[in-house]
Design a protein that fits this description.
The protein is mainly β. Among the domains are: 107 residues, no CATH class; 77 residues, Hemopexin-like domain (Hemopexin, 4 Propeller); 206 residues, Methylamine Dehydrogenase, Chain H. It is 10% helix and 41% strand. α4 packs antiparallel against α6, α4 packs parallel to α7 and α6 packs antiparallel against α7. The relative contact order is 0.08.
Length: 726
């Protein structure tokens, strides 16, 4: 064995490589190391072609689904809280599995034991809709990434990806024979031939403003009905012609309501359509309304027929209702949901109703209406995080009446604090850790030890609660004597810790606030593109910082108070550093491709973490002194709204609109990010070329991924492995 091969093997540097790749690499090293010196130069010069071949044939990824117990934790993360927001449900035709579309992927449950079976990922922006093919062999999913994907229902292998130009996918359905897949796309329905993948002629409403929200094939497969912003539209599939328009969804004022849900009955004789104020049962033969159903003036945004066609289940807001189709009588109200319903379906045998939306997934007995089970772990969007001063407890705010406490070590859910009657936007611990403040329409103060509500303060003074513009924020002063609040209008309000009102600082459409470490200065950022510094004692404005080209999304002071950092929103995606005393700009960090929603310093002030919104979805770590981008953390499928460091500084915690909280291990740089040798924030083939061009060089070198002093085969393997994961 050549010396170079013996050296690498004896050092144990191939232990993490599969046997197949191990064999190939030894062969390549042998080929390079043997022969004349003239041959060596030529062989190393063309080495990158071989490495690219290895990467392409052995290491590069397809979209895939793992069944590992780690449930697809992204690179660098060691824990996830939450299973994502529920947006769609579907039973397998044999009734053995329940598939749940969520903001992070598709969860599969055993329909009888409710055990989690697998998590299927692939859509980078989560899954909005899901359906099984009639024979159960395929699963179709629609994602926020403007694609529809076909998967093998058993192996979870990706069969095909269909692009959809237009964003959010509201409806997806297979034809009864499984040959055609239909998906909504603005004012039209796109049809694909499932076998060939070819797109057929789309069905259109004829009005670009008449967007489609729901679709249903007739049981004989001859027609397709769609619920739209104005009516129910029916097409003949053989010709693609629009053959009927059913319009009966006006409200009491004569305004047309959007038809959110539409479904053919199993025998094809009836179409059920649901809008905000009513449900209409249509006679398909006469195209006339046969029955109108409503409870207290409420209709349905989701509905489904039982398999035998005798019942209809409808969901609107938190309410779920069961109806007798023959008589039109209301049979039962199924109450347990606390948040907005997104999807409802019957099991194939008709015995169970599954309903889901946001953080909730409920199962019901069809016959009795009894609540059978709740499948826990799903969560709503995370708006803000706060960590207790001792680092033991994480508080998360988000969703309707969702305020949770978590153990930062184990991830265990410690408590839900119930009391708010609206979405909880903000949360903050007092510096002594005894009080937790949370904001919805009012400010609530909780005793952390007992978890009891201590007091409520009105978030507004002189006017009613407003959400006409701006943002929402809470911040305690470092000594705990003051609380600053921001409630979506033109004012930052200061409160004494005793919860009595102190002062109002006027900043038009302010979006974010931060206290300086000494508590003497409060910074506010707004949609007016400015950052303002206020004297806390007098309430006077001290300075106005300009330079951002759009609104301000986040603010933070460095631990020593010398630097103020602001993050831009909308079209300004920069991170800007300012001298906190003089207001002079110090530096600008560029890299985010979306709004900067959150900023946080490490305890030593050397590292700054920034979080990107929905267009970006990354966490970036910056060296404050040099401005160097140290690491990019990827894995959230929605915008990242909040960041906090753990007490020991080794973990960064991120909360996202994808309804999950991720714990990132900062003790070790993730290999996939170390492999970003050209420092463009992502591992691509360009990094392979970068290493190949420097192959054989020694000493300090950016292409030396593992920092062993030489750019060699191991660096190529690390980059190729990172390509596989990303």
């Amino acid at each position: 064995m050549p010396d170079i091969v013996q050296h690498h093997v004896s050092e144990g540097r191939f232990r993490a490589i599969s046997p197949q790749i191990h064999f190939i690499l030894i062969g390549i090293i042998f080929a390079i190391d043997t022969g004349s010196k003239e041959d060596y130069a030529m062989k190393t010069g063309h080495f990158w072609l071989l490495t690219l071949f290895i990467a392409a044939t052995c290491l590069l990824p397809d979209a895939f689904a793992q069944d590992s117990p780690q449930w697809h934790l992204p690179e660098g993360a060691w824990m996830r809280l939450g299973k994502g927001r529920v947006s769609g449900l579907a039973y397998s035709p044999d009734g053995n599995r329940l598939a749940v579309a969520s903001s992070i992927g598709i969860w599969f449950y055993d329909a009888h034991t409710y055990e989690e079976l697998a998590l299927l990922t692939g859509h980078p922006e989560g899954v909005t809709r899901i359906t099984f093919s009639p024979d159960g062999g395929l699963i179709a999913t629609g994602g926020g990434d403007e694609t529809v994907r076909l998967w093998d229902a058993e192996s979870h292998q990706l069969h095909a990806t269909f692009p959809v130009d237009g964003g959010y996918i509201s409806a997806i359905a297979f034809s009864p024979d499984g040959s055609t897949l239909a998906v909504d796309n603005w004012h039209q329905v796109i049809l694909w031939d499932v076998r060939s993948g070819q797109q057929k002629t789309p069905l259109t409403t004829g009005n670009e403003n008449n967007w489609i929200r729901s679709i249903s094939f007739s049981p004989d497969g001859k027609t397709l009905a769609a619920g739209s912003r104005q009516n129910v539209v029916i097409w003949e599939l053989a010709t693609g012609e629009q053959i009927a328009t059913l319009a009966f969804h006006e409200d009491n004022d004569g305004q047309v309501n959007t038809v959110w849900g539409v479904s053919y009955s199993p025998d094809g004789s009836t179409i059920a359509s649901g809008s905000n104020e009513k449900i209409v049962l249509w006679d398909v033969a006469t195209q006339q309304p046969r029955e109108t159903l409503s409870i207290d003036g409420e209709g349905a945004n989701t509905l489904a027929f039982s398999p035998d066609g005798s019942k209809l289940v409808s969901g609107r807001w938190r309410d779920l209702h069961l109806w007798d189709i023959a008589t039109g009588e209301h049979q039962a109200a199924l109450t347990a949901h606390l948040g907005y319903l997104r999807s409802v379906t019957f099991s194939p045998d008709g015995s169970t109703i599954a309903s889901g939306g946001g953080a909730e997934l409920h199962l019901w007995d069809t016959g009795s209406g009894a609540h059978k089970a709740i499948l826990s772990g799903h969560t709503s969007s995370i708006y803000q995080l706060a960590i207790s001063p001792d680092g033991s407890t994480l508080a998360s705010a988000g969703g309707r009446d969702e305020l949770s406490l978590w153990d930062t070590g184990s991830g265990a859910h410690k408590a839900s604090l119930i009391g708010h009657d609206w979405w909880v936007y903000c949360v903050a611990f007092s510096p002594d850790g005894n009080t937790l403040a949370s904001f919805s329409s009012d400010i609530y103060f909780w005793d952390v030890a007992t978890r009891h509500l201590k007091a409520i303060s009105k978030a507004w003074i002189g006017n009613s609660f407003s959400s006409s513009g701006g943002g929402y924020a809470l911040a305690y002063s470092p000594d705990g004597s003051l609380l600053a609040s921001l409630i979506g209008d033109s004012a930052v309000r200061l409160w004494y810790a005793g919860r009595t009102y102190k002062a109002t600082l006027r900043h038009s459409h302010a979006t974010t606030i931060a206290f300086s470490p000494n508590g003497r200065t409060l910074a506010s950022g707004g949609e007016d593109k400015t950052v303002r510094l206020w004297n806390v004692a007098t309430g006077e404005q001290q300075a106005e910082l300009t330079g951002h080209t759009d609104g301000i999304g986040a603010l933070v002071f460095s631990p020593d108070g010398s630097t103020l950092v602001s993050g831009g929103s909308w079209r300004d995606n920069t991170v800007r550093l300012w001298n906190a005393v003089t207001g002079e700009p110090k530096a600008t960090f560029v890299g985010h491709t979306g709004s900067v929603n959150s900023l946080v310093f490490s305890a030593d002030g050397r590292t700054l973490a920034s979080a990107g919104g929905w267009r970006d979805r990354t966490v970036r770590l910056w060296d404050v002194a040099t401005g160097e981008l140290k690491t990019v953390l990827r894995g959230h499928t929605g915008g990242i709204n909040s960041l906090v460091f753990s007490a020991d500084g080794r973990t960064l915690i991120s909360g996202s609109s994808d309804s999950t909280i991720l714990f990132w291990n900062l003790a070790l740089t993730p290999p996939a990010l170390a492999a970003d040798v050209n420092r463009d924030g992502i591992v691509t083939r360009a990094d392979m070329d970068f290493v190949a061009a420097r192959f054989g060089q020694t000493g300090s070198n950016e292409a030396d991924v593992n920092r062993d002093g030489v750019v060699n085969i191991l660096d190529v393997v690390l980059v190729a492995g990172a390509l596989r994961r990303h």
